[in-house]
Amino acid sequence: MASPNNPSQDTHAVPVKERDEPLDLQAFLDEIQSDAVMHSQGLDAREAASAVMCTLARRLSEGEDVKLFRALSGGIGEEILGACTVHLGPSRARRIGRDEFMTDVADHLKIKVDQAARVVAAVFTAVRDRIPEEEVAAVASQLPADLGDYFRRPV
């Protein structure tokens, strides 16, 4: 039997799977990828998260998007929000409702709007699981009521 003080003698030790992604980011992507709509539509979690988060960041003030970026630790903010190029543009903090938000995400991912709602729900849930309640409230407060409620509620 291996000594608890010398793990190199433990012949049953399994090496930790090497990942290209930081562990927090990988857990975030795994959570999103596990949603049924991701499989049924053949969507990639990183692409879906990027579409939703870019669309969301475009709807927030510059200060709030930075706070959200910082609240998403473990590489999530840097890899997902930091890489956003599709939806960033001059129309920052534009207040749109839930329907237009879903349409923007659907267009980005080239899927139907009803499928986009499920993708958005999966990403919002994964984000909410990783940020403090006060940040959830701050983000939701910058969105129109129907979209703010969608971001705020557990799915």
Automatic annotation (TrEMBL):
<dbReference type="Pfam" id="PF10025">
    <property type="entry name" value="DUF2267"/>
</dbReference>
<protein>
    <submittedName>
        <fullName>DUF2267 domain-containing protein</fullName>
    </submittedName>
</protein>
<dbReference type="InterPro" id="IPR018727">
    <property type="entry name" value="DUF2267"/>
</dbReference>
<dbReference type="InterPro" id="IPR038282">
    <property type="entry name" value="DUF2267_sf"/>
</dbReference>
